[in-house]
C-alpha cells in the first residue's frame, strides 16, 4: 500500500504553509454564522439528551437520533458557556476544523502533497462539510474518527507496530460511541487489513503479521462494549423493534441516491455538479485501483456495508450516513482531476504545442475543484438550516385576537413546544383540524410535509385544500421549509 510515486512538485514547507492558510480560512468559515437558528434534529438532541444530567446521558438511549459522545461533549460545552446555538455546535465545529489537517496527514499516506493539499483545501471550503461542522450532531466527529482511524490502520499495517493498533482500537471505539454507523467503517477496515496481510502483503505469508491487527480489532470491540454497557439492553431493544416508521417509508435507498445527487449539484453550485463528480470519481478510483486494491477498498468498501446493513435492519437510509466517507470522495475526485490534467499536459507536449505552464495543468485542475466548491458558499449563509425563529416572529406579530396557532407533525411540535415554550397544540388528523376550526380561524405551521403526507394522507389533503398558504420560510435542510397557512372558521 505505497503512495503513488508521481512527484507533486510541491515541497513539504510550501505544503504546510498552504495548509496553515487553508486552516485559518476553514476556521473563519466554520465560526461565521455558528449561532444561527437550530433545526429539528439539533433541537431534538438538545431537548432529549444534552440538557439531561451527564449521568443520564451516558446511561439512557432515547433513540439512534442521539449521538452519545456528541451529547456528552455538547453538555460540557453548554455547562461551560451557557445554552446558545454556538455552544451546542462548538464540538462539531472543532472536530470539523481538526478534520482539515487530519485529511492532509492521511492523504500523505496514499498520494502526493499536491493532491493532499488540494483535498484539504476543498474540505475547508466545502458547503457540506461546513454545514455539518455547524450542525449539533456527531457527523463531523465521525468524519474525523474515520480519517484518524484509517491513518492509524495504514501505519499499523505498514510497520506492524502494536502501538498503532492499540491507538486504532481507541479511535474506532470512540467513533462507534459517537454513532453506531462507525461500526460498518470498522468492518470495512477489518476486510482491508485481512486483504493486505493475507494477499497483498509482499513476501511470504507470516502468521505473526495477523497478531497485531487481530489485537487491535478485538480491543476496539472490547472498549466499545464497555462504553455501551450501561445502555446495551436499550440499544438492543431499539434495533429489535419491527415497527415500520414513516421515516423508513420516505428515506428509501432510491430516495437517498436522488438526495445525494441533488446535494452534489448544490456542492458544486451547478446543475451538472453530480455528473462532474461522477466522471472525476470514476477516473480517480481507477487510478487508485491501479495503485492498490487495499487503499481503494479503504475508500469505498464502507459505503455498501452501511447500505446493506440499513436495508437488512429495515432502517431508513439517509445520505448523511455516508458523510464520514466524504474526505475519501474528495481524494478520489482530486485524483481524477489530476489525472485529466496530466493527460492534457502530455497531449500538449506531444503535439508540439507545449506552452509555459503546461506541466502545471494537474495543479490547475485540482485548484479548479477548490474554486467550484467555494462557489456554493453564499447559499450556505443566506438561510438558516430551518427558519423556525422567523416563522415564530411572523406568527406572533400577525395572529389576531380570537385566532389560534396549531402545529402539524413532530417537526413543528418539538421545536415550538419544547424549545420555544409555546402552547401551540398539535393537531394529528383532519378531524382534529376541523374541530379546531369550529372555534375560529386557525393558523397552522408545519415542516417535513412529505412525512405528514406519508403518515396521514387525508390530513395532508385537508391542510392543502382547506388552509390558504401565507408564508414559506426557506432553509438549507432539503424539503424542510417552514410552512405557514391560515384556515378559515367552519
SSE topology sketch:
Elements: H1 12-31, H2 40-50, H3 54-59, H4 68-81, H5 85-107, H6 113-125, H7 127-133, H8 139-159, H9 162-178, H10 182-200, H11 211-228, H12 232-240, H13 246-250, H14 253-267, H15 273-291, H16 293-300, H17 302-312, H18 326-350, H19 361-374, H20 377-382, H21 388-398, E1 404-408, H22 410-419, E2 425-427, H23 430-437, E3 442-446, H24 449-455, H25 457-466, E4 467-473, E5 482-487
Parallel strand pairs: 1-2, 1-3
Antiparallel strand pairs: 3-5, 4-5
Overview of the molecule:
With 490 residues, this protein is mostly helical. The protein folds into two domains: 12-382, no CATH class; 388-487, no CATH class. The protein contains 25 helices and five strands. It has helices spanning 12-31, 40-50, 54-59, 68-81, 85-107, 113-125, 127-133, 139-159, 162-178, 182-200, 211-228, 232-240, 246-250, 253-267, 273-291, 293-300, 302-312, 326-350, 361-374, 377-382, 388-398, 410-419, 430-437, 449-455, 457-466, and strands at 404-408, 425-427, 442-446, 467-473, 482-487. Strands 2-1-3-5-4 form a five-stranded mixed beta sheet, sandwiched between helices. Strand 1, helix 22 and strand 2 (425-427) form a beta-alpha-beta unit. Helix 6 packs parallel to helix 19 and helix 18 crosses helix 19. The radius of gyration is 25 Å and the shape is globular. The termini are far apart. Mean pLDDT is 87; it is low at 352-356.
Amino acid at each position: 500500500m505505497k503512495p503513488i510515486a508521481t512527484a507533486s512538485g510541491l515541497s513539504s514547507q510550501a505544503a504546510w504553509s498552504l495548509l496553515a492558510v487553508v486552516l485559518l480560512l476553514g476556521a473563519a468559515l466554520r465560526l461565521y454564522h455558528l449561532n444561527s437558528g437550530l433545526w429539528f434534529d439539533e433541537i431534538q438532541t438538545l431537548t432529549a439528551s444534552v440538557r439531561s444530567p451527564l449521568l443520564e446521558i451516558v446511561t439512557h438511549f432515547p433513540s439512534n437520533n442521539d449521538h452519545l459522545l456528541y451529547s456528552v461533549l455538547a453538555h460540557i460545552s453548554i455547562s461551560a458557556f451557557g445554552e446558545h446555538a454556538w455552544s451546542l455546535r462548538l464540538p462539531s465545529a472543532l472536530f470539523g476544523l481538526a478534520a482539515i489537517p487530519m485529511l492532509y496527514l492521511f492523504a500523505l499516506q496514499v498520494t502526493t502533497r499536491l493532491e493532499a493539499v488540494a483535498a484539504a483545501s476543498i474540505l475547508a471550503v466545502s458547503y457540506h462539510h461546513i454545514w455539518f461542522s455547524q450542525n449539533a450532531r456527531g457527523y463531523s466527529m465521525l468524519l474525523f474518527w474515520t480519517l484518524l482511524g484509517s491513518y492509524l490502520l495504514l501505519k499499523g499495517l505498514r510497520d506492524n507496530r502494536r502501538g498503532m493498533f492499540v491507538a486504532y482500537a481507541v479511535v474506532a471505539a470512540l467513533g462507534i460511541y459517537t454513532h453506531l454507523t462507525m461500526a460498518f467503517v470498522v468492518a470495512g477496515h477489518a476486510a482491508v487489513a485481512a486483504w493486505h496481510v493475507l494477499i497483498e502483503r509482499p513476501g511470504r505469508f507470516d502468521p505473526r503479521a495477523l497478531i497485531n491487527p487481530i489485537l487491535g480489532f478485538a480491543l476496539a470491540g472490547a472498549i466499545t462494549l464497555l462504553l455501551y454497557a450501561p445502555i446495551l439492553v436499550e440499544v438492543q431493544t431499539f434495533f429489535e423493534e419491527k415497527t415500520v416508521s414513516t421515516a423508513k417509508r420516505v428515506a428509501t435507498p432510491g430516495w437517498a441516491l436522488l438526495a445525494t445527487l441533488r446535494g452534489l449539484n448544490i456542492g458544486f453550485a451547478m446543475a451538472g455538479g453530480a455528473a462532474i463528480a461522477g466522471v472525476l470519481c470514476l477516473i480517480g478510483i481507477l487510478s487508485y485501483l491501479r495503485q492498490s486494491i487495499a487503499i481503494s477498498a479503504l475508500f469505498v468498501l464502507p459505503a455498501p456495508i452501511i447500505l446493506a446493513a440499513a436495508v437488512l435492519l429495515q432502517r431508513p437510509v439517509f445520505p448523511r450516513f455516508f458523510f464520514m466517507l466524504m474526505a475519501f470522495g474528495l481524494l478520489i475526485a482530486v485524483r481524477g482531476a489530476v489525472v485529466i490534467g496530466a493527460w492534457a499536459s502530455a497531449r500538449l507536449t506531444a503535439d508540439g504545442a507545449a506552452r509555459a505552464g503546461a506541466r502545471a495543468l494537474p495543479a490547475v485542475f485540482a485548484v479548479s475543484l477548490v474554486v467550484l466548491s467555494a462557489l456554493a458558499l453564499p447559499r450556505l449563509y443566506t438561510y438558516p438550516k430551518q427558519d423556525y425563529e422567523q416563522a415564530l416572529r411572523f406568527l406572533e406579530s400577525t395572529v389576531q385576537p380570537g385566532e389560534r396557532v396549531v402545529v402539524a407533525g413532530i417537526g413543528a411540535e418539538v421545536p415550538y413546544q419544547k424549545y420555544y415554550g409555546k402552547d401551540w397544540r398539535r393537531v394529528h388528523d383532519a378531524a382534529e383540524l376541523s374541530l379546531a376550526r369550529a372555534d375560529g380561524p386557525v393558523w397552522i405551521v408545519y415542516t417535513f410535509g412529505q412525512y405528514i403526507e406519508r403518515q396521514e394522507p387525508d390530513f395532508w389533503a385537508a391542510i392543502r385544500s382547506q388552509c390558504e398558504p401565507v408564508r414559506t420560510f426557506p432553509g438549507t435542510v432539503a424539503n424542510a421549509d417552514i410552512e405557514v397557512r391560515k384556515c378559515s372558521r367552519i
